[in-house]
Amino acid sequence: MAILVIADHTNAALGAATLNTVSAAKAIGGDVDVLVAGAGCAEVAAAAAKIEGVNKVLVADNAAFGHQLPENVAPLIADLGKAYSHILAPATTTGKNVLPRVAALLDVDQISEIIAVESADTFKRPIYAGNAIATVQSSAPIKVITVRATGFDAAPAEGGSAAVEEVTNAADAGISSFVSEELAKSDRPELTSAKVVISGGRGLQNGENFEMLYKLADKIGAAVGASRAAVDAGFVPNDMQVGQTGKIVAPQLYIAVGISGAIQHLAGMKDSKVIVAINKDEDAPIFQVADYGLVADLFDVVPELEAAL
Ligand code: FAD
């Protein structure tokens, strides 16, 4: 058995979810190789080689892979993947974009967002917005799997010394091209890898009031998230959405402010280690998952909390 992990990266830095995916691969067993497909991605390959437990790093450094266009990356993975029993990618935007195409090219099914490994062919994954956990067994000759990072601890980023091998079979499929990207810039930690997340909901009433959460977040080095209602109302951009149709987070501490706790929101944060909820309605469903609940008006207690900190 040998497993190919597809690295998530920005060409300059390795994405944190790659480390969790390596842990998932180790749980399956066998040699774990990592593929870094990108352009000018030598530093990412060097970082991947240091991950504990990685056997070999394959690096495909070519302009065709610079923007992770799935039409270019998927054929490369499918080609290299034939030598492996499993192909794993983090369930990030890129992983979810590329891997179904890989599965189609290999004519196998894809197993989405596993949160646990039972054996080499049996995995657990959430269904119905996380309200049930399905145990799935696959008979596919090559198992193509996306991994929910919050389900696995990160593999140590240091301690390995894998060999780095260049892969040269690069081709531009010529059926799509990169136009532009707009990246949200923030000095705060990235939502999915932050240790502390403070999220605001409709209870914040408008975008200006999120300033209270930003101030609080900056005191404790937290990322700021939001409910879909807050995003849909235009209070904050949609890359801040936590939940079933937003980002999945599992920080050490999640503070929900003015969020009712709809199941679609819980689907994105209920695996957080400690959950704190601030809501003026004592019957709000968020209190059912909260470790600490404060029934109070957020406009009183958030400034108080910030002042105390
Ligand atoms: P509300 O439900 O309106 O809750 C606001 C809360 O603020 C209330 O509990 C209220 O008591 C409290 N509040 C008001 N004023 C104050 C105050 N002054 N002080 C303290 N508390 C106060 N939602 C997500 O979040 N993420 C998703 O990914 C997502 N995906 C969805 C996918 C589908 C297919 C569907 C159908 C829905 C999805 N939703 C998602 C929407 C979800 O069902 C809820 O509508 C949404 O989460 C509600 O957001 P909210 O808690 O901010 O708003």
UniProtKB/TrEMBL annotation:
Pfam families: ETF, ETF_alpha. Signal peptide: none annotated. GO terms for molecular function: electron transfer activity; flavin adenine dinucleotide binding. The keyword Cell inner membrane does not apply. InterPro entries: DHS-like_NAD/FAD-binding_dom, ETF_a/b_N, ETF_a/FixB, ETF_alpha_N, ETF_asu_C, ETF_asu_C_CS, Rossmann-like_a/b/a_fold. The keyword Lipoprotein does not apply. Its cofactor is FAD. It comes from the Bacteria. Keywords: Electron transport, FAD, Flavoprotein, Transport. FAD binds at residues 202, 227-228, 241-245, 258-265, 279. Binds 1 FAD per dimer. Belongs to the ETF alpha-subunit/FixB family. This is Electron transfer flavoprotein subunit alpha. It comes from Thiopseudomonas alkaliphila. The lineage of its organism: Bacteria, Pseudomonadati, Pseudomonadota, Gammaproteobacteria, Pseudomonadales.
